[in-house]
Amino acid sequence: KGTMRIILAILVIVIVYSCAGISEPKKIALSSDIAHDCMISTPRDSIPTDLYSIGNIILSDQFPPFIKSLDVCGIKLIARDDISDEFMMNIAKTISEMFAINNNTDQLLQRQVIENMYRYKTAIPLFYGEDWTIENHEEQGWEQTNSANSMCDIIMEDIPNQVMEVLEHILHHVSDIGLHFTLADDWGLYPNSELYRVTNLAIGSGNYNISQYSDISELDIRNRVILQEYAYWIIYTSWDLRKKYGPEESEWSIMTLEEFMIKEPAAFDLFQNTIPKILSCPSDSMLNIFQL
């Protein structure tokens, strides 16, 4: 129950503050005490032969309180029956587009990222609407699923800013697990990584306002969330999606790729030196499906 409360408390803060500009609480700083709380510590040995295929939606009792699952590119989507199969499949297609192979792709590196997400059993829970309550009779199942899988956030169906909701929480899992275990020096959740360095630079410049995260009382978890959120903003802004898909207000002040390159060049260099080798921005035709 303690683990569940921590996860849900973090979700409240991240969801509320990433979607709206709320006045900040007390001043805080990023420190070197960083939790690896949302990923399992022992990897599994089995990895599918086909890393890239989109699986079928299957009914399963392996991930209570969720009843169906779908595998794609190292990520398992898990959902109750109130989540539409269409929504699950569209998320899977988005993930597949993100791991497309093109002229920039380093296929060996990309495969390592996907393999690590499989090894560390990456799972994203899907909830319908903004009511993602875990009922009392579901707590034991939630704890079982949470302890057996790496789960760093959730995706909600049928809410405002749906494109951002989907992309942000896919990227949290890709960065916290795939990039963390594959490119530790660059994207690792460690105090000596390049991600840590450029996060501190953005905090110091005032472009990344972390005051809202003071509501996370566990210092090491707070620091993990601060790094996780900035990793997302680096990639999302470098793909120049914010003007098109929002949000208007958030803890991150930069709106465009051009502004990002000028104001936070070290963070853009981190993106440019690594991400195009692994990930591609999903197409507008794919993302616009979530706005219909």
Description of the structure:
Helix content is 47%, strand content 8%. It has 292 residues and is an alpha/beta fold. It has a five-stranded mixed beta sheet. Strand 2 and strand 3 form a beta hairpin. The longest helix is centred in the middle third of the chain and has 21 residues. The protein is globular.
Provide a concise account of the structure shown.
It is built from twelve helices and five strands.
Blueprint of the fold:
Blueprint: H1 2-18, E1 58-59, E2 68-72, E3 75-79, H2 85-98, H3 107-119, E4 122-128, H4 139-148, E5 155-157, H5 162-182, H6 184-187, H7 194-205, H8 219-238, H9 242-245, H10 257-263, H11 265-274, H12 284-287
Parallel strand pairs: 3-4, 4-5
Antiparallel strand pairs: 1-2, 2-3
Helix pairs in contact: 3-5, 5-8, 10-11
Order of helices and strands: HEEEHHEHEHHHHHHHH
Structural class, from secondary structure content?
alpha/beta
The quaternary state of the protein chains shown equals single chain
Strand portion, in percent?
Answer: 5-15%
**Straight-line N-to-C gap:** 37 Å
Q: In total, how many beta strands?
A: 5
How much helical structure, as a percent, in the residues?
Answer: 40-55%
> Largest sheet at a glance?
5 strands, mixed
Gyration radius from CA atoms, angstroms = 18 Å
